[in-house]
Design a protein that fits this description.
Distance between the termini: 45 Å
Number of strands: 2
Radius of gyration: 19 Å
Helix content: 55-70%
Shape: globular
């Protein structure tokens, strides 16, 4: 399931479909959000929220880390077929190899943490923590991209951090040891998501087609996840048809074309604006967990959710333009 470039900009116009393939890779960057872009980002937020439920359900049949590895294998095949069909050069120049390896490692570590989190804690609490990713993106942008943090962003960081801490401590106070570990895994996954976006924006791979960026992340995450799976118990639990459906959904709708769409957004739109829509995913995920999984969401988690959502809003709030007399 976002970083902050040099300025606090709006979203850019989204992709158009041509001949059954994305033609947006050649679109010029824009500095405003149109209706199609807004609708697309809301739809993607819904996909991310539903994805949390799918991972949790799939973990009943697959060992979660092994499922993440299988997802990467399937997505790598799909993406390679996509690249071949579109005639896109997937090979990297030698100077790009270390960056690709780093992205693959972070990608694998992120989803090792996320899938483990959703196996150990509730979808609602993991989602509140995981989708606070723009908090880390703002911090890392300041550290690595020399971004300035306005007063509103600093307040937003403090508020969102308070919300994350509340969510984690709520799980600990409830006496759920597994939740405590799972919550920390969700924090790790959130950090990994932000780091990937920082690497993309600040390295020698930022001008590669998004399909190529994604292919190498997915492909190079396979050894990380498959080796990691060996340390998390039996690879298969009690498989039923729904678990195969969950895996197929992960491969096609999330790890292949879903992530492809996400990285396209990062290339076309200012990343701050793309990140701003992350504040929709926590409440949507909590709602879906309650409706689809019957999770009980207490007032403490609602309070944490409110703080995280408010913090993300402040972090990604576009500053007012002060007219100047010329």
């Amino acid at each position: 399931m976002s970083v902050l470039p040099g300025r606090s900009a709006s979203l850019k116009e989204l992709l158009t479909l041509r001949a059954g393939a994305f033609s947006a890779w050649g679109m010029e960057r824009k500095d405003h959000l149109d209706t199609f872009g807004t609708v697309s980002l809301i739809a993607f937020a819904l996909l991310l929220a539903f994805n949390q439920v799918v991972i949790a359900v799939g973990g009943d049949g697959w060992q979660p880390v092994f499922m993440a590895g299988l997802r990467s294998v399937g997505a790598a095949v799909v993406l390679f077929a996509w690249l071949s069909w579109r005639g896109i050069i997937w090979r990297l120049d030698r100077p790009q190899w270390p960056t690709a390896a780093l992205m693959g490692f972070i990608f694998g570590a992120e989803f090792l943490c996320l899938f483990t989190a959703l196996d150990l804690t509730t979808v609602s609490r993991a989602s509140v923590i995981f989708y606070a990713m723009p908090v880390w993106a703002a911090l890392f942008s300041r550290m690595f991209l020399a971004e300035k943090l306005t007063g509103a962003k600093l307040i937003g960081l403090a508020v969102a951090f308070a919300g994350m801490a509340w969510a984690v401590l709520d799980g600990r106070d409830a006496g759920a040891e597994g939740s405590w570990v799972g919550d920390l895994c969700a924090v790790g996954a959130s950090i990994g998501w932000a780091l990937i976006l920082i690497v993309i924006k600040g390295s020698n791979v930022k001008d590669l087609p998004a399909e190529v960026q994604l292919f190498w992340q997915v492909f190079l995450s396979i050894p990380v996840l498959m080796i990691g799976a060996l340390f998390f118990g039996p690879l298969v639990r009690e498989l039923e048809p729904i678990h195969w459906v969950a895996l197929g959904f992960q491969i096609m709708c999330v790890a292949s074309f879903g992530f492809l769409f996400w990285f396209w957004l990062i290339k076309i739109y200012p990343a701050t604006s793309v990140a701003s829509f992350a504040f929709l995913s926590p409440p949507l995920a909590v709602l879906m967990a309650a409706l689809l999984l019957g999770e009980q969401v207490g007032p403490q988690l609602f309070g944490a959710l409110a703080l995280v959502t408010l913090g993300l809003f402040l972090i990604n709030r576009r500053p007012r333009q002060v007219p100047q007399n010329v």
